[in-house]
Amino acid sequence: LGEGDLCRYAVDKSYLRERLDLLLKDQLIEKPISPDEHEPFVLGNYRMGDQRLPVALVSRLWEPKHADKMDTVLRQSNLGLTIVLTTTADSHRRFLGPGIVVSVDALLVEGDGEVRLDLARAEGEVRRRQNAAAATDTPRLIKEDMHNALLVGPWPDPWPLTQKRWIDVTEVLVEAWTSQKKKCTKQQLENAADMTIRAMNEFFRGAPEWKNYIRGADGNNKPRLWELNIGAPDYQTESDTVKGVVDHAQARAEEPETA
User: Fold this and answer.
1) Do 209 and 75 touch, CB atoms closer than 8 A?
2) Which of 90-94, 165-169, 236-240 has the lowest mean pLDDT?
3) Whole-angstrom Cα distance, residue 75 to residue 64?
4) pLDDT single digits (tens) 131-158
5) Cα separation of 55 and 77, whole Å?
6) Which tens digit of pLDDT belongs to each residue from 193-208?
7) 39 closest CA partner among 96, 81, 92
8) What is the pLDDT of residue 242?
9) Could you give the CA distance from residue 95 to residue 86 in angstroms, rounded to a whole number?
10) Distances (CA, A) of 26 to 85, 116, 224
């Protein structure tokens, strides 16, 4: 089917799930008792060494609004690193939330007169992602292309970025941090995004976890300075230092005088 046909025809999702269950055979464990009513459809877990990786199915990644919706849903789920199977061939989406997008076509194997899907073919991509995302003290932005990047650093989990403007803003923040400048003005972020940023919550809509990686750097309710969320912010450290000096002086003043 061409893209025009995909706009006119729909695939029966229940049939698609049944076919995938058959093609995957005994590769999945802990399959859900009742199937999801809406995408992404969680098919079960795949055992990869001592890991159990959720496997989900999505379609229509050629449709930007639907792809963004799937990205948001997976970010807000508690699935963690997921193998996201898609029926969309040649999708430019490498990540959906914390999930790695793998085309169903890439897993097809023919043998003994039958066709099946081999999830082991996705293991190389999973390991590559995990190796790249290993925790490090120095923040680094791994750019796959203009629409897909991964922020790694001293955080428990890497941060997948799936929109160009998110990537561009994060890149400026990483460059500021690694150059020892650390902070960026709101204007610098707007220049990178090529748009007005009224609020960071609005800018990173669909990715509420942004607060784990980025923070205001001046202590104001509406910050004009921003930085990566690493360690204690300078304004807090400076405040603690001043408080320590004041407390010490006050303690000295309250000491009884000796004759």
Assistant:
1) yes
2) 236-240
3) 16
4) 877 768 899 999 988 889 999 999 988 9
5) 13
6) 999 999 999 999 999 9
7) 96
8) 39
9) 11
10) 17, 11, 54
